[in-house]
Amino acid sequence: MFKIYSVDDGRNVPIEYLPAAAITPKMGLALTQTGGQLAVASGTTAPSYICMCERTEACEAGEIIPVLRVGRDIIWETTAQAAMTSINLGDKVTLHTDGLQVTATTTSGVAEVVYKDGDAAGSMVRVRF
Question: pTM of the entire structure?
């Protein structure tokens, strides 16, 4: 899951409420807006929002959910889906298909690695979008 580690100016990031596609929201899920609705951001799609709710079942299309807007001034903390041995600080990696983690793939990466707490899969990673 993506959670805020820090914001450059120390401000609180406001919660926004936007319509979702028929997705199953998870806390910290990376989201993008497509067709006026929120969808899971993965691979080379940079997220515009991070989900702030959790459900066990999918939303109905158009259902409003709480989200945080992604900004360049926010550092997000998550986990690495794969070993990060070849990843250096400053490299940009892609998002895992679950929208909750980053990968070790740098081709067309969207998440700039600013810190990593180890190289093993499952290690904590901090990124900026």
Answer: 0.94
Nearest Cα to Cα of residue 14 among 67, 79, 60: 67
Q: How many angstroms separate the CA atoms of 56 and 74, rounded? A: 28
Rounded to whole angstroms, the Cα distance separating 97 from 44 reads 10
What are the Cα distances from residue 61, in Å, to 28, 47, 120? 20, 19, 37
DSSP alpha helix (H) spans, the chain:
none
Q: What is the pLDDT along the chain (129 residues), one digit of tens a residue?
A: 999 999 999 899 999 999 999 999 999 999 999 999 999 999 999 999 999 999 999 999 999 999 999 999 999 999 999 999 999 999 999 999 999 999 999 999 999 999 999 999 999 999 999
